[in-house]
């Protein structure tokens, strides 16, 4: 795909909200930057992208995404380095995953370079919205939904791709409590669990709410057939340090292949740590908490970053995990990843892309 064939029409807002932002108190996901990008797919091809002021959409009531759920998204972040430059972390991974999600949901293919081109153009236009504090970042939400106004069920012929951005602070502000789910299922073999499909999140709300009513932050999903094997945790992948080894469930079509988790694994391997990507039974987790061989558990995701787990609930029992003093690996890995993102240490993996 030759992106130079596209010229983006850009319309700057006359009512910028940037002066109203309280940069020391940014909530997650409620503050939106001034502009958004829109690109429509019709007649078998992507039309010219456009950057416009952030505003509401006007949709046909039969918009098929609303009724039948052809809707996918990505989550990525931009950071401002200590040199004041905005950068993004491994954006090509999100572009690749977006394509996979689109393929599984029978939606229009968006070439990776077109995805990245749109992303860069929007980020350049709104680059002053990338926070300056190194505890904050800019969450980027690329998404695509089916736009046919048609009540029958079939893959839509038209789609809208969009990107908006949100300056954000922390998603979780404390170590989290996770409940191992024994009845409900996020994803089954052959299903859409490995796609970042909107419906996956809708399906997880009710079981997560039940857990939240009991005081948990999120669930640890287990496999659909037996509920005996750990899969992932709500909006994060899950990793454990057991006997000094980094252990995480092997990717499958029921688990979202997380970019944060992959980066943690690659850093750990680079440090010479043993990494096991394999099936992990709930029994193993509980036993290794009880015998003290599990020293750390943490979630890994773009929004949640690295979220240490302080307690795991299972069959009505609460298992307290070792405290902060034992979280040596997750602390070190956060320092390493944040160091690269904020330009404090060398980006030796080539993961950080300048927005130019
Ligand atoms: N699993 C689910 C269900 C998610 O929503 C996310 C967040 O994107 C992740 C895992 C972590 O993926 P990533 O690290 O690419 O953000
Ligand atoms: C992300 O980390 O990008 C996610 O998708 C989580 C989001 C649902 C808040």
Automatic annotation (TrEMBL):
InterPro entries: Aminotrans_IV, Aminotransferase-like, B_amino_transII, BCAT-like_C, BCAT-like_N, BCAT_family
GO biological process: isoleucine biosynthetic process; L-leucine biosynthetic process; L-valine biosynthetic process
Keywords: Amino-acid biosynthesis, Aminotransferase, Branched-chain amino acid biosynthesis, Pyridoxal phosphate, Transferase
Substrates-to-products reaction catalysed: L-leucine + 2-oxoglutarate = 4-methyl-2-oxopentanoate + L-glutamate; L-isoleucine + 2-oxoglutarate = (S)-3-methyl-2-oxopentanoate + L-glutamate; L-valine + 2-oxoglutarate = 3-methyl-2-oxobutanoate + L-glutamate
CDD domains found in the cross-reference section: BCAT_beta_family
NCBIfam families: ilvE_II, PRK13357.1
Name of the protein: branched-chain-amino-acid transaminase
Species of origin: Brumimicrobium aurantiacum
Lineage: Bacteria, Pseudomonadati, Bacteroidota, Flavobacteriia, Flavobacteriales
């Amino acid at each position: 795909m030759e992106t130079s064939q596209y010229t983006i029409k850009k319309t700057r807002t006359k009512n910028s909200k940037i002066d109203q932002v309280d940069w020391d108190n940014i909530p997650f996901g409620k503050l939106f930057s001034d502009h958004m990008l829109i690109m429509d797919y019709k007649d078998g091809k992507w039309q010219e992208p456009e950057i416009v002021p952030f505003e509401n959409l006007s949709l046909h009531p039969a918009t098929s995404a609303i009724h039948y759920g052809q809707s996918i998204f990505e989550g990525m972040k931009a950071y401002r380095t200590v040199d004041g430059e905005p950068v993004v972390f491994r954006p090509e991974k999100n572009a690749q995953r977006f394509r996979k999600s689109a393929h599984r949901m029978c939606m229009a293919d968006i070439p990776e370079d077109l995805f990245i081109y749109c992303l860069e153009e929007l980020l350049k236009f709104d680059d002053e919205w990338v926070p300056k504090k190194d505890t904050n970042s800019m969450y980027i939400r690329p998404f695509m939904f089916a736009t046919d106004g048609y009540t029958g069920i079939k893959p839509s012929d038209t789609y809208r791709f969009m990107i908006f951005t949100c300056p954000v602070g922390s998603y979780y502000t404390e170590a989290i409590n996770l409940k191992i789910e024994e009845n409900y299922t996020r994803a089954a073999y052959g299903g859409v669990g490995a796609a970042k499909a909107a419906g996956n999140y809708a399906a997880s709300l009710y079981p997560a709410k039940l857990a939240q009513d009991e005081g948990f932050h999120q669930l640890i999903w287990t496999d659909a057939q037996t509920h005996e094997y750990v899969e992932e945790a709500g909006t994060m992948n899950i990793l454990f340090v057991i006997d000094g080894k980094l252990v995480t469930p092997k990717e499958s079509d029921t688990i979202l292949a997380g970019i944060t988790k992959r980066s943690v694994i690659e850093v750990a391997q680079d440090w010479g740590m043993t990494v096991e990507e394999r099936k992990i039974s709930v029994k193993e987790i509980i036993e290794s908490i009880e015998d003290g061989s599990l020293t750390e558990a943490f979630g890994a995701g773009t929004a949640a970053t690295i979220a240490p787990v302080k307690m795991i609930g299972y069959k009505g029992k609460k298992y307290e995990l070792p405290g902060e003093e034992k979280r040596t690996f997750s602390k070190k890995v956060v320092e390493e990843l944040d160091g690269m993102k904020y330009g404090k240490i060398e980006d030796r993996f080539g993961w950080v892309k300048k927005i130019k």
